[in-house]
Every structure is written in C-alpha cells, then in structure tokens.
Design a protein that fits this description.
5 helices; 0% strand; single chain; mainly alpha; elongated
Length: 127
Amino acid sequence: MVLLADVVLVLHFAYVLFVVGGLVAIWLGCALGWRWVRNWWFRVLHFAAIGFVAMEALVGVLCPLTLLEDWLRPGEDTETGFVQRWLHALLFYDWPLWVFTAIYLSFAGVVALTFILLPPRPRTGRA
C-alpha cells in the first residue's frame, strides 16, 4: 500500500507541475516563439486542470489525490523516503482552506487571462 501511496504522490506532484510549469512554459514559450505552447489541446487540458482544482476548492471538495494517498497510508505519521519527504514538503502546507481557495481561484484567473491574451492556435480540421 505504501508503494501505491508513493505512486499517487508522484502523480499528484506531476499534476501540480503541469499546472504551474505549464503556465510558465506558455509565457516563456510565447515570448521565445515556441509553437507548441500555442497547441490547442495542450492549452485546453492546462486550463481544465486548474479549472478542476479551482472548482474543487470553491465547492469545498478535498483533492481526490490527497484523499487517496491518505487512504493508502493509514496510520503513517512520518514520511520515510527522501523523495516522499521532499514531495510532501513541496505539496502540502498547514494553511487555512480559504487561503488555498484564494490561491487556486487567482491562479485559474491568471490562466484564463493568459488563454485570452495569448490564445492557442485554432484547431485545424482534417481534410
């Protein structure tokens, strides 16, 4: 079960990296002329990823990845592995829920504004 919990933790980190790193990549890529950052599917999936997190926070639903990891680690008080310890330190903070809701909604707003100001290329139909 601990191995599965570690897999969930790594997937959770990858999700956060996609959301945060994706926005940085979009800004940087648009400035440097990287075509892939204007890919329609990438941008829609990126927008949907942060939109899902923002809606969870807005309606008061806890993250399913966090709940799954907690369920897979019953009674475990401390992180023992190097990767686990660092990923937990990067992902989890002891702040009030309203702070996370404000952060997620603000970040979603920045992503939405980026989607408008630096739009993806239109989808092309197949001939």
